[in-house]
Design a protein that fits this description.
This protein is an alpha+beta fold. The protein is built from four helices and seven strands, in the order E-H-H-E-E-E-H-E-H-E-E.
């Protein structure tokens, strides 16, 4: 019995307003409290680094990050639900780190929902460490708020 391997040729490209319909649709399927189109538009117009990875015209995932003084803050990273569990999150994190190093950043920072243990494990496997917590940082169901875990990676 022989295994059949399918190769996916993926490419990075800048996330632009022309691709926002696809990205906003992914956000809506990936999160209970997704970023709005306005959040993305504001980020793009502010000059934040925004990249998507796609294959065969399909968006697999994307990230948005903000450069600071010697550091980069990851604002959003999402893998389309249909492509989760295939390593695309690691690909996006690698691309982010390469870009950040190229900008002279010494640190990467992010917040992740306290209840999102899957994402926390991915970040930890990528070398991020828990460094703090933000109480009531994220909106949650029924008007409640959820804490964020603050994580960082020394580049």
């Amino acid at each position: 019995m022989s295994a059949v391997f399918r190769t996916v040729e993926a490419q990075f490209e800048p996330l632009t307003e022309a691709r926002l319909d696809e990205v906003v649709a992914i956000e809506a399927t990936a999160y209970e409290h997704p970023w709005t189109r306005g959040n993305f538009v504001d980020s793009l117009r502010s000059g934040y680094q925004a990249q998507l990875v796609g294959a065969n015209g399909t968006v697999l995932g994307y990230f948005v990050a903000m450069m600071g003084v010697d550091e980069v803050h990851l604002l959003n990273i999402t893998v389309a639900p249909a492509f989760q569990g295939q390593g695309w999150g690691r690909v996006l994190l690698d691309a982010l780190a390469i870009w950040a190093r190229g900008q002279g950043a010494q640190w990467l920072w992010l917040e992740v929902r306290a209840g999102n243990t899957r994402a926390q494990r991915i970040y930890e496997h990528h070398g991020y460490r828990r460094v703090g917590e933000r109480k009531g940082y994220y909106p949650a169901s029924l008007g409640q708020r959820e804490d964020a875990v603050v994580m960082s990676l020394k580049l």
